[in-house]
Amino acid sequence: MKKLLACVLAAGVLYGPASLPVAIADAQEVQSIDRIAAVVDESVILRSELDRAVNNILAQYAGREGQLPPRDVLDRQVMERLVLVKLQVNRAQETGVRVTDQEIDQAIGAIAQQNRVTPDQLRQQVTRDGTSYAEFRNSIREELLIQRLRQRFAQSRISVSEAEVDAAMSAQQASGTQFHLAHILVALPEGATPEQIETAQKKIQGVKTLIDRGEMDFSAAAVRYSDSPNALEGGDLGWRGMNEIPSAFSDLMRSMKPGDVTAPIRGPSGFQLVKLVEARDASQAAPALVTQYHARHILIRVDEDTPDAEAKAKAETLRARIAGGADFAQVARENSEDPNSQGKGGDLGWFTQDQFGPDFGDPVAALQQGQVSQPIRTQTGWHVVELLGTRQSDVGDENRRAQVRETLGRRKLEDEWNRYLREMRGEAYVDVRGKTAEQAPGTTPATPPTSGG
């Protein structure tokens, strides 16, 4: 359990690094006995926050401390994570992203369920491990804010064309192999000078030399030297299909064996080393028969102008009207706040249970044909749903296309999101104080020997 909590609090649930932040009001109360470690625009990071986050990393590496960089380097790496988290949370709040107490409770309940404990038992474990429950809840709140900021970013910036899906499916048929990859990044700023490029080249080649000589394994080198947000996870990129791998690397993957490491490669973010950890055959076709649901819904959004309780009350009122005999389609046309389905009387067409996420799909799957749901809460707001029918459908090819489209979108999002974070970091006012102040933004201070050293 302690290891799980360390992972939740230090590594992030879904969208990049997390922190153990203290609310600004709390920070102001304890500034007399706690030092400010950094000022990030109008927010602060306290030394106690940094120490807690570092201690959680140390807990994850218990028994493997030799893989971590020196403490001052680790402090700087974790500080950079905390700065990015603070910037993302601030940006989310500035753009109207909100998280309710109920949503935090639901997220904590999910964590407890995954670990087969009750929420009360989870709370007791958190406090036993030295974290106040208020801090734990705040860390979950910030995770959810970052998730939603990233979702909004994806909706506004990321699109995948049918031609891209066709090309990726052709490539997938040619190679049904998936690759487990890890990487080390030596980042370069936008418009890097020749001197910066030369320094980065020397550094990445020095790292490669250490690995080739057997003086350091790839994972330890990533922890110590990589500028990537996943450095403290050993640079692990997980499993990728060929269509998820940038073209600069995909041709190399075909000729590599597990354990091989590429020569330094220049990419949009800087210089990289990529390791093929292992490969597997993923050519099995997805199951052809799936259950599809035909439903219509009414959405009442929760946003800065409509609090959760008000939206829920409106959804309950609309459901009562339908239960009293009002026409569902007409009520949807007049009241639904989903622009994609409002004009169709709320009709969503046919969809699979997981298509709109479990918060929506699971309650719909539990309905009987013709039944109207109680209000259902999702990240978007409150829904009233009527199930019109179900069917078993052969959508194997459709599923594969959907999976490929999602994969391509995820790859594009990863690239664009990292670029967005670099821009956000470059535009921010960040004053790092104390021992961590020596590091230049976006760089890793530990320097390996050059290729000749």
From TrEMBL:
Residues 333-363, 432-453 are annotated as: Disordered. It comes from the Bacteria. Coiled coil: none annotated. PROSITE patterns: PPIC_PPIASE_1, PPIC_PPIASE_2. It is an enzyme of class 5 (isomerase). Its main location: periplasm. Residues 1-18 form the signal peptide. Keywords: Chaperone, Isomerase, Periplasm, Repeat, Rotamase, Signal. GO terms for molecular function: isomerase activity. Its EC number is 5.2.1.8. Residues 176-278, 290-389 form the PpiC domain. It is found in: Periplasm. It catalyses: [protein]-peptidylproline (omega=180) = [protein]-peptidylproline (omega=0). The PPIase activity resides only in the second parvulin domain. The N-terminal region and the C-terminal tail are necessary and sufficient for the chaperone activity of SurA. The PPIase activity is dispensable for SurA to function as a chaperone. The N-terminal region and the C-terminal tail are also required for porin recognition. Chaperone involved in the correct folding and assembly of outer membrane proteins. Recognizes specific patterns of aromatic residues and the orientation of their side chains, which are found more frequently in integral outer membrane proteins. May act in both early periplasmic and late outer membrane-associated steps of protein maturation. PANTHER family: CHAPERONE SURA. This is Chaperone SurA. It comes from Lysobacter niastensis. The lineage of its organism: Bacteria, Pseudomonadati, Pseudomonadota, Gammaproteobacteria, Lysobacterales. The gene is surA.
